[in-house]
Amino acid sequence: MNTSSVYIPVIGLEIHVELKTNSKMFCGCKNDPFNADKPNIYTCPVCLGLPGALPVPNKKAILWMQMIGKALGCELPKHSKFDRKHYSYPDLPKGYQISQYDEPFAINGKVLLRSPHLKGGIKEFHITRVHMEEDTAKLVHEGDNTLVDFNRSSVPLVEIVTEPDFNDADDVKAFLEELQVIIRYLGVSDADMEKGSMRLEPNISVRVDGRQSMVDSPEPRFELPKYKVEVKNINSFKFVKAAIEYEVKRQIEILEKGETPKQETRGYDDVKGGTYSQRTKEDAQDYRYFPEPDIPPFEFTDEYISDVEKSLPILPSARIDKFVKEYGIKEMDAFILTRDKKIADYFESIVTSDTIKKAGQAVANVIINKKISTSLSVDEFVKKFVELSKPVETDANLLTESVAAVLKNNQKAVEEYKKGKITIIMFLVGQVMKQMKGKADASTVKKTLENELKVAPL
Ligand SMILES: [Zn+2]
Known about the structure:
Layout: E1 7-18, H1 59-71, E2 79-80, E3 83-86, E4 96-99, E5 106-114, E6 122-134, E7 138-142, E8 145-149, E9 156-162, H2 169-186, E10 198-208, E11 229-232, H3 237-256, E12 264-269, E13 274-280, E14 290-291, E15 298-299, H4 302-310, H5 316-327, H6 331-338, H7 341-351, H8 360-368, H9 378-389, H10 396-409, H11 411-418, H12 425-435, H13 442-455
Parallel strand pairs: 11-12
Antiparallel strand pairs: 1-9, 1-10, 2-15, 3-4, 3-14, 5-6, 6-9, 7-8, 10-11, 12-13
Bound molecules: zinc ion.
């Protein structure tokens, strides 16, 4: 019996992205935690959390965060502020993190996801909010000791929160991949999962299909489960999919027994391929948020907000449309080419160069199949491309000899062709090309073979 069909996973995401500004979020220290030679070299009283040190917000980090918000279809409120989020942990010596609580820099977004890998083509996912905060120091465990490295302390950190719109691990993966591409297009972060400049926390619960909420609503609204499980320590798209699939299965097994899964935070163990309990609801924290008294609230003008929007580059989804419409290439190929902004830019500079225009699909094929390296200059690429596209001169005598030899040595294929299996001609073309060591034009070979086969007796 397939019982799993009556359960629908409900998944929301929290994604953290470290911005690659030159300096940190609230001080002038260098922001380069991944390339630092030694621990604790980029520090000052502010990012060490010393008493009395005053934070000064990084204007560029806020702009970049707002660009992410806009790229995810959010509104940018004109009024915003920072808040203190209190908790006590060795990675945060001042006892609170500067974050945003009820007035984030970006809210109510929407991402139209179009991916050939997505079940059902185009889907829409909603963004609850995008806010700005500071990263914490990094704890390094060595034997019985735990060391603290403050190079990462106060690095600008963006948190993106989605609505619980997802019900499939593949959709989550496709969305996160798109998000990574968007952020890289903006040039504001490397969004590297392995290094930790992009970190994911899905929250997962499972609802019973068809059970609707009692709330009066013109549209049917489904009752959300009364619990959710947050999963941490996921450092790849592959693992996020695996963690969700594991959790959904685990929770369905609990629901099947007539019980409700516990509200808790779980970690992901990539070696065992499963999740394990870290913290339950009982020890959930009260962060006692309050407005950050050392940073005045922000008032943005309409002009500033429209400038943020204008500063966005063409985004991957719009670029797919452009490539299909303007350069006449297949949507799947446009998708592949737009995954890396550098490759997309390169493709565009080639198909708009004077020497080769309107060769969009052919150029796309060459790039995707790596026939010519994209590390070449545009001029060199174009030169090679033109060479590659020239019809190969065919030696007529050698062709006649080769065709005769191939037909003689492949009687079985010839018979099949004559019985109507005409696709087998491509096998014979291949044999002739091989014999001529590629020094022949495939369409000429095919025509010659077809003529020969018409006249040759069985
Ligand atoms: Zn500092």
